Amino acid sequence: xxxxxIEHSLVIEGEFDALSIEVKAxxxxxxxxxxxxxxxxxxxxxxxxxxARDGIIFLPGQWNMNWEDSDQxxxxxxxxxxxxxxxxxxxxxxxxxxxxxxxLTIWIPYTAPSTILWFGNTPGPEECLARSDVHDVxxxxxxxxxxxxxxxxxxxxxVLRPSQMPKFVEFDNLKPRLLIDTAxxxxxxxxxxxxxxxxxxxxxxxxxAVSSEAHKQVAMSMYGLSNxxxxxxxxxxxxxxxxxxxxxYPIIAGSGPNASTLHYDANNQPLAGRELxxxxxxxxWDCYASDITRTLPVGSTFSPExxxxxxxxxxxxxxxxxxxxxxxxxxxxxxHATLVAVKGLLRLGILHNGTADxxxxxxxxxxxxxxxxxxxxxxxxxxxxxRDLLRPAGESMWGKRRPIGPSSLRAMVKQAMAGNxxxxxxxxxxxxxxxxxxxxxxxxTVEPGLYFCRPYIEAYxxxxxxxxxxxxxxxxxxxxxxGGVRVEDCILVTDNGFENLTTAPKGAELLRILGVHx
Length: 518
Ligand code: GLY
Ligand code: MN
Ligand code: MN
Prior knowledge:
Elements: E1 8-13, E2 18-23, H1 27-30, H2 39-50, E3 56-60, H3 80-86, E4 94-98, E5 103-108, H4 113-119, H5 125-131, E6 136-139, H6 143-151, E7 156-158, H7 171-174, E8 179-181, H8 185-194, H9 198-221, H10 228-241, E9 252-255, E10 276-280, E11 293-297, H11 304-322, H12 330-348, H13 356-362, H14 386-389, H15 415-419, E12 443-446, E13 449-451, H16 454-461, H17 465-470, H18 473-477, E14 484-486, E15 489-493, E16 498-500, H19 507-514
Parallel strand pairs: 3-7, 5-6, 7-8
Antiparallel strand pairs: 1-2, 3-4, 4-5, 9-10, 10-11, 12-15, 13-14, 15-16
Helix pairs in contact: 2-8, 9-10, 11-12, 12-13
The chain binds glycine and manganese (II) ion (2 copies).
């Protein structure tokens, strides 16, 4: 290699006017540090949505934790609402936003030298100011003094929930004259977070690029691998080597019947003799998630049954992706995917004794496609307002407090939803924004699947004689070995359509990489 082949820039060293050469890291390692985290703009968006001209927003960040009776703990994970206002990803911080003064301040811990010896230093004020667009960074020992003086003057303190109230001695004296609002912040932050900023789109694009590359690496090395654990290891190794150290959710590498367990996580079975492998895996980039699923034929046993289901799920996905644009009700897309599935299963003879329309309306399709078509992706893999995506029109959650609870991990599809389909009833949104509808700059997954989970399907068919009547048991018998097929991409809604942020090979392209003839 010639020196001139190295990407570099010349840097003038201030003090001596000397020249030094700074070798540029590959672009991929730069994304995420090149742009400042737009914390001010996020805070202003939230304050505007609150409709408040005065008050203090206060959010504590996450602290380090240890397991019970142990000096070890889980990997640090920053609180997402806190991160949204700061871009700060280390423990022990807080944030205040003074709405009237338009002043966003991050409060950081001082790290003692004895702690630095063991764990390294935490970022100081200059580093935080360089990384995040905020007005000020202060050490936390000044926080109570600041809060005491500001809270004595403003009317309202906004916190996310009662457990996140500030904790300092004088606070009790201030409480009687303060309006403490523990209800308004979360809904408005959800509504801010669900529409992604340019910065967030770049982060999620990067998370997708890293994970797509890792999916491709797995496909290229697939035939050297003989156990699900090696698939998991290969994916993880590729992400880590690209400097993405955190997965957005536990890797699912399920072969054969394991592919029909939606959140399978054992990842320890041999691949030999299995037809398909579902690999659902996505890394985070700077706290932003990706969520990608590919289904890969295992070895040369790509049976006609597996092939047919593989093609059908890709068709379900492609037809839904092509329909994505602002104004589309996401539930309609789910129903469309179900209809495509029912038609396909009829063609294959797994369904019979009825028209596609009849079987679709009866809800038999969700025995095979039992989860929602997708969810939002952002600071969480199942990002804020994901539950609202699958609601019918008219059932807006606008203005109501949403319980946090475990998010709709690939929400189960109720029979009522799958069956009583009236695509037209879902388009009559009016008034405030309807969060079951797609808006520009949302990022959603489109992840149809068909599964042959024997216990689930058998139990499902017991629900009605009509279900049983629509299913041809003899044909179904040939499909148990297929296990399951899912394909999942992250799709950005643009002003007049969509952009697929996931570049991992799929469909015919994936089969070519795997050397499977088609
Ligand atoms: N990987 C979790 C999901 O697809 O929702
Ligand atoms: Mn998903
Ligand atoms: Mn997934």
